[in-house]
Amino acid sequence: MRAVRRFTVRASLPESLSGLGDLATNLRWTWHPPTRDLFASMDAELFNRVRDPLRMLTALPPARLDELAVDDAFLAHAREAVADLDRYLAEPRWYQKQDDAELPPAVAYFSMEFGVTEALPNYSGGLGVLAGDHLKAASDLGVPMIGVGLLYRAGYFRQALSLDGWQVEHYPVIDPNAFPLELLTDGGEPVVVDVAMPAGRTLHAQIWKARVGRIPLLLLDTDTEANDEDLRAVTDRLYGGDADHRIRQEILAGIGGFRAVRRYCELTGHPQPKVFHTNEGHAGFLGLERAREIIQADGLAFDEALPAVRAGTVFTTHTPVSAGIDRFPVDLVQRYFTDGRLVPDVDPRRVLALGAEDNPGLFNMAHMGLRLAQRANGVSALHGRVSRRMFSRLWPGFDFDEVPVSSVTNGVHGPTWVARELSALLGRNHEELGLDGARGKPLRDGVSDEQLWALRRELREKLVAEVRRRVRAAWMQRGASALELGWTDTVFDPDVLTVGFARRVPTYKRLTLMLRDPERLRALLLDERRPIQLVVAGKSHPADEGGKQLIQQIVRFVDDPEVRRRIVFLPDYDMSMARYLYRGCDVWLNTPVRQLEACGTSGMKSALNGGLNLSIRDGWWDECYDGSNGWAIPTADGVADPLRRDELEAAALYDLLGHQIAPLFYDRDAGGVPGGWLSMVWHTLETLGPRVQASRMVREYVESGYLPASRMVAEATGDGYRGALSLADYRTKLDVSWPRVRIFDTELLIEDAAPLVTGTEVTIRARIDLAGLEPSEVDVQAVVGKVGDGDELSEPLTVPMSGDGIGAFAARLKLPHPGSIGYTVRVLPKHRLLATPAELARVVHA
């Protein structure tokens, strides 16, 4: 028989154990070893199996709970853990110790997925795990943040393999009551936010709250009886459905998410956010709702509200290619916004203009995100450069480097990802693991190479045991008999160089680059003196047939009895599997097509555990590789043929593995310790450790994003929106005057016919008609730089020019470069509420 409905009943705890409920439902336990120890002490075997305190409380027999309720030693341990959590939640931390009254009282962080823990399966991959690490680091630093997303009743898919190696997806339905979530209520009734839908319908969403340390995470859920059947399914699956389903999710995440934040703060007294951070463009519609709120509450027009909205928005793009941006047909967007019910008082034509792109039939979510945010960034230095070039059409007339998209390189949450055994060896507690600077004694103090090598082998041995367990389970799932799986007991060897490759499987990540020359790979795996073993994992999007074919190619190769003890594919890659891989692998492999990996944080997690990266110089590795912390796979950037490029880069990969990496790993001293290898491991731990921390990332967001945004919001909204109104008036004036601004002539003057050498002082003059604009309303610049055959300036020096009030402008400067030099003059808008001169995408050149 099948149940017509499922629900979860939580354990009823004795009064003396009531504090366990708070410990189990606050997800700080995911990065706090003492709390996990407390639950493990209740039943070690059960805890190791479920790895979830809340599930454990439900699974423990009532008799065991009764025993613990009168166990003085356990109760003392529990009281200590509860008191420690209370201190953590209340004490001033880094953010509270900053002496700056302009820091925002709260920041709202929007993401379509949050990978906090496998106990809350609301993520698909790197974007979600990054969002989870962002919240954890914000909690540790005391940043007053509210996370906002959707709760997916079927989550992301679980992955299995068919007998012929094809990815098979299934979607287990979840009951929110079984997870560390609580329903937001008011007077005992669920709090509901409403979002207008076409044809006079309304989408209702209830709000679940997870506690991520100090951070509330609000997740909207449409599976409620108040909705029509199709609307109940809006939050059914992560990244599922057609364009209509997807736009409903993104409308709910942005507009409904903003309304949820407002309601949550009203009910709880949490400070209302002053700054809004969108992790990718999915929740970008929230800017429209913020404008609607200002228009209705304060009587401003849309153009007057827009500066206040932009001032308080930070937009992070993770997309290095245009094809990866969410786009919707314009007529679909019109369907949701034309009747004016979704965001009243916001003209639908203005909505469409925000998402406009070269193709007039498409609405571009990234373009809307950039137009509604005053601050935008990529997620590595290289990705920032790629993004500036990719979005440069929005800022015509500006050099790529002037496009207002900066970069904040991603980071990972050390306390979540570092092996507990390693932190103990290095004398670091869970707090110190999350720090982005040197703290306490140097890492090597009192720790020998022999100790570190023994620990690395211990972690590798744990990975081997997990690999064997998962390989056996995967074959059983594919239909094999237990009687024919004895070989799985000898898969992998804890003394063999272990390489890991695990990530999502879009084609650009090149899962099968390692198979480019199967015989060379086979020779590396089976080398009698210096063998290599390779663990591979990853999921392809259910609609990505090309990605599934790549997985099938790998599976068919690893199924070969000759190599299957040295290479495996582990299905259903998730956070629980990832910990074994990051901690146990000696080398972390990454082979994307260069400039298509925005950041790629998996290698960071490996580095924190003493793994060495072997990667194409893309994403974070491009800026962090130093020649001693791993290996960079040479790239065939100038080769246009992708097959030829793959062939060359695969050959370079094989050469590195066979001629550099394996020899170094197996080069041992008399005690069996690879000194050269460990010197690279120590260097990695000491130098990369601080750089790849999420705490470093969040501090950068605070200092370069949240704080300046908060200051700009105060400028824009203070004194009855005086700043926003001023900027709106200024933009109206520009609309009239800017097309008529002219630079008539320019000249470069050299005093006393001095020879032209580096450092020679020159004067640049220009006559300019400002078409009614005041000199204080523009920034007139002389730009001098090297000039090539195409007359394009490089390495420019920019100097402000001063005017005489009647159209003559001049600047004195020293020639900065030898060789061919050129100059130009340009006029830019100038207003105190502009974050960069390029912000308004207006420039007049000589």
Features:
single chain, 846 residues, alpha/beta, Rossmann fold, 4 domains, ten-stranded mixed sheet, six-stranded parallel sheet, 39% helix, EC 2.4.1.1, pyridoxal phosphate, Glycogen_phosphorylase_DUF3417
Task: Briefly summarize what is shown.
With 846 residues, the protein is α/β, with parallel strands linked by helices. Its EC number is 2.4.1.1.
Oligomer: single chain
Overall pLDDT confidence: 93
Query: What's the β-strand tally?
Result: 30
| Unreliable stretches | none
Spatial shape: globular
CATH topology of the largest domain: Rossmann fold
Provide the β-strand percentage band. Answer: 15-25%
> What is the CA-atom radius of gyration, in angstroms?
29 Å
- CATH superfamily membership of the largest domain: Glycogen Phosphorylase B
Largest sheet: 10 strands, mixed
**CATH architecture grouping of the largest domain:** 3-Layer(aba) Sandwich
Fraction of residues in helix: 25-40%
Q: Quick one: CATH class of the largest domain?
A: Alpha Beta
- Total tally of structural domains: 4
Number of helices: 26
Pfam family, one: Phosphorylase
GO biological process, one term: carbohydrate metabolic process
Cofactor: pyridoxal 5'-phosphate
Modified residues (N6-(pyridoxal phosphate)lysine): 605
